């Protein structure tokens, strides 16, 4: 009987991991199923571009997984039962329950509304493709006139504000953040950020906490009312709530607690990659939710799964965090390096060079999903249970 591997989520972490598993494990020994809510790979790092009105490349997962033997199930995950090793999904055909032997949980994160009244009902987000498209439709309705308020001071808020300002110069853009905009950046990077906001004509409201969102306004804690024809909620992310209800051990923030191999500390047949992972990085701090973290945790999880199933030695993947890359429209950007304590260094790459570097990264990511084992030996490993627990490799 084939070993059943289910991968939940086909974002940066899940799609990459599934591709590696399919190419490194012998097809006769494993059955790999990927469950994803959409039929396409969604470039989350570019959703602010989609919301601003730009068209993104169409990347069907069926094409990305073509020839690998991966079974793609386009469905929404509604429940995970870690004790019974089942996943409940729903699609146009109804509800189905899938059983697994090994689970890779990579459902990622969603926009955090922090319980602010009206945020879920009236605000727009760019954390998922449907919400980004909803914002795009609203901006189209506004045309060249209207007020847009972006709530948040993190990378997503900055990228959304600058992208909308550049793509739709007729709109009046403001940003409200509870802290200091770019306060975590080094002095060079922050100066560049503020100059970019000034160039785009974006109004900044620092130390401003939004306590309520209405259809055409947002109310701050100090009583200030901000008129807004479209409020963009970009005040952070939260792990998919399915994890906390699954029976897996999670942290207070809902992220799944794993060991150094990305294995659940409570259910050893469950591995985790991406934003849902709570793991301590090489600097002694929890890895942040980011594309870079998705890559590192995905690589470690796949190596651990392959090692567990084949009896091969598992190497440790670096769990480092080197910095923040921020787009400021299509022709500007910031790449801020951090030190071992995650503090921003004084220097930074700014302007067009930073924008070009990010453009290269965005181009490489989809390519790597189609070629996840590029540079690796062309071999597929048999499961230890099918080869009397003797690790070996056979021709692909």
TrEMBL record:
Q: Where is the FAD/NAD(P)-binding domain?
A: 4-292
Q: Gene3D superfamilies, per this entry?
A: 3.50.50.100
Its lineage reads:
Bacteria, Bacillati, Actinomycetota, Actinomycetes, Mycobacteriales
Superkingdom per UniProt = Bacteria
Q: Which UniProt keywords apply?
A: FAD, Flavoprotein, Oxidoreductase
Query: What's this protein's name?
Result: FAD-dependent oxidoreductase
Could you say which cofactors this protein requires?
A: FAD
Record family assignment: Belongs to the NADH dehydrogenase family.
Entry keyword annotation includes Coiled coil = no
């Amino acid at each position: 009987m084939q070993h059943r591997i289910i991968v939940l989520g086909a974002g940066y972490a899940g799609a990459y991991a599934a591709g590696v598993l399919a190419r490194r494990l012998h097809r006769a020994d494993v059955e790999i199923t990927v469950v994803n809510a959409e039929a396409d790979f969604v470039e989350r790092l570019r959703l602010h571009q989609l919301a601003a009105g730009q068209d993104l490349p169409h990347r069907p997962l069926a094409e990305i997984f073509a020839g690998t033997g991966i079974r793609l199930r386009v469905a929404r995950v509604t429940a995970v039962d870690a004790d019974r090793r089942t996943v409940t999904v729903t699609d146009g055909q109804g509800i189905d329950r899938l059983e697994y032997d090994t689970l890779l949980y990579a459902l990622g994160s969603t926009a955090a509304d922090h319980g602010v009244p009206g945020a879920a009902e009236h605000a727009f987000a760019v954390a998922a493709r449907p919400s980004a498209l909803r914002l795009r439709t609203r901006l189209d309705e506004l045309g060249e006139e209207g007020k847009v308020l972006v709530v948040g001071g993190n990378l997503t808020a900055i990228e959304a504000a600058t992208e909308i300002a550049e793509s739709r110069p007729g709109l009046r853009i403001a940003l409200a953040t509870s802290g200091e905009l770019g306060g975590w950046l080094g002095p060079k990077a922050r100066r560049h950020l503020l100059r970019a906001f000034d160039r785009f004509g974006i109004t900044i409201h620092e130390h401003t906490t939004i306590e309520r969102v209405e259809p055409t306004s947002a109310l701050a804690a100090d009583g200030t009312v901000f008129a807004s024809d479209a409020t963009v909620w970009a005040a952070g992310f939260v792990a998919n709530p399915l994890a906390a209800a699954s029976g897996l051990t999670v942290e207070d923030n809902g992220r799944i607690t794993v060991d150094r191999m990305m294995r659940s500390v409570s259910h050893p047949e469950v591995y985790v990659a991406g934003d849902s992972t709570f793991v301590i990085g090489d600097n002694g701090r929890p890895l942040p939710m980011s594309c870079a973290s998705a890559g590192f945790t995905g690589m470690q999880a796949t190596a651990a799964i392959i090692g567990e199933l084949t009896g091969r030695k598992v190497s440790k993947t670096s769990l480092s965090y080197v910095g923040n890359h921020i787009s400021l429209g299509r022709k500007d950007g910031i790449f801020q390096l951090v030190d071992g304590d995650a503090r921003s260094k004084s220097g930074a790459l700014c302007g067009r060079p930073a924008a070009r570097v990010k453009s290269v990264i965005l181009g490489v990511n989809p390519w790597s999903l189609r070629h996840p084992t590029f540079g690796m030996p062309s071999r597929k490993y048999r499961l230890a249970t099918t080869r009397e627990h003797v690790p070996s490799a056979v021709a692909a």
